[in-house]
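ENTRY TYPE: protein
WANTED: fold as tokens:
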Amino acid sequence: VVFLGELHDNPWHHENQTAMVGGLSPKAIVFEMLSSEQADLVTDALLLNQDALEKALGWNDSGWPDFSMYYPIFRAAEGAEIYGAQVSRADVRDAIMGESLATTFGKEAAQFGLMSALDEAEQATREAEQLEAHCNALPDEMLAGMVLGQRLRDATLAREIERALAGTGGPVVVITGNGHARKDWGAPRAVSGHITQ
């Protein structure tokens, strides 16, 4: 499993991801930006047409940066199975508002570390980073929920990575934000097996 982190709006990061995908020829790619339903729409024919793929994925309505930065990654991934690990805004909101992650994520919540509290030092550090990432504008009472939302995204990535490994045998490339690619507390921590980052 190879994690290729990014700042979502950095074209240089996407150029590097494209080059890495082309060089690795993975059997599967997991995109943070796609739902599993969107991933199922990707066909070999769509991969040949940027406008058609963008339209099929509804990318313009997704809130992600311009598709022209991501399309070369899809082209370089030709022949790979596409997996989606996007968490809906509604599920993140439910996590932030205190909905049980066993309900939101499903029966594997404990397996992917969602039912265990973080140790106090990590929780405090992660809350501080969430506050900084949101321009110090979040009320303190929202910070724990924001961390939980990030953990939900990490666990969803990890679940799809393991599904991709089981389905294809790997190698698997993961296209995701830098925070989710962190080895110390991102998706790699929730994935069993060998990780290259």
